Amino acid sequence: MTSLLLFVSLFVSSQARVYETFDSVVIEADDVVKSVTESEVYEDDSVVINSDLFDPDDPHERSCWTFDNKHGTCTPVRECYPYTKVHQLDNLETWVIGTKGTCNYIEPSGRQVYGVCCDKSSERSIGFGLSSINRERIVQGINAVHGEWPFMVGIFSGGRLYCGGSLIDDLHVLTAAHCVSQLTSRDVARLSVLLGATSIKRKELSSVTRRVRSITRHKGFDSVKLYNDVALITLDYPVEYSNQISPVCLSNERDLLSDGTEAVVLGWGNLYEDGPRPDVLQKTNLRIKSQEDCQRNFGSRAPGGIVDHMVCAYAPGKDACSGDSGGPLMVNKCQVGIVSWGIGCATDKYGVYTRVSSFRKWIDRNRLRY
């Protein structure tokens, strides 16, 4: 068993380290980077990221290196990740959220664009599969009651929410790997997690904020095919449980996911494609779809196919949307899925979630380590 705890240090400094184990990648927060206030972030729009990646004599150069040390191309966020349901971001917000702001380049027009260093094999057209977007309000839900979902958390960077998650014990949050896959140690230090809240715009007495000590993502996460889209966030110190803050039940039974089973998805994401963000946590009901049905629904349009560790859910006019990534899909008060990807919001294509039961061993093993 001791061999399972061996790791390779990919990066070591006096402030932070990055580890790679046999099944995960762990990024510690940089102790030098303290909390960044909203005024610091939003008033300084002159920040240039990783400018040393580019040849100053060639303003159109877009070559870069990915976090996994692969040669890539600096690409607008939504072109590299057209399926995932993180928030739509403007240039400044892209910089604020380190998970996406990994590089920049100069367009022929002279405009500076902030983006993500995208593996060449993952480059896809932003318009792929998005021509039939339904722009009606898609959640069609109701505001969650305060304390109704005490495990629900919001993940913030620079004071702006960009993904969701769920509290699984007093020190760990479960989320999607694509929410954190591009983070550096400095980015991790800028994260904060909001717990015990229903509103994200007004302070509630029950709400608690924690900084992040480290993030752990599945080593097999594939940003092209969206395989193994699961990650853990380790808080800087434990939270105390209350009526408004308590851990979620994690599903370990595939029987809960029979075709047609009613499910609930939660999040503070956009109310429709490119739409406004709600103040209050939203919930809406979906139906679990069988693997066979989901495979037929997507056909060849799924980037890597619908595989066993994914689960699909659907209801006409209802769906998760931008900003809901990493949040929970619930059946009978237990979390069965993590919001992962889809083609648009509330289209005729199903929403795809990471199947929690497929990763229970990975989750339990890594929350004990970190």
Description:
This protein is mostly beta strands. It has one domain: Trypsin-like serine proteases (Thrombin, subunit H, Beta Barrel). The protein is built from 6 helices and 21 strands. The strands form 3 sheets. Strands 9-10-11-14-13-12 form a 6-stranded antiparallel barrel. Strand 9 and strand 10 form a beta hairpin. The longest helix is centred in the C-terminal third of the chain and has 10 residues. The two termini are 16 Å apart.
Task: Briefly summarize what is shown.
This protein is mostly beta strands. The protein has a single domain, classed as Trypsin-like serine proteases (Thrombin, subunit H), CATH 2.40.10. 11% of the residues lie in helices and 31% in strands.
What are the key terms here?
mainly beta, six-stranded antiparallel β-barrel, 11% helix, 370 residues, six-stranded antiparallel barrel, 6 helices, Thrombin, subunit H, disordered N terminus
How many domains, in number, for the residues? 1
Biggest sheet layout: 6 strands, antiparallel, barrel
Helical segment count: 6
Name the CATH superfamily classification: Trypsin-like serine proteases
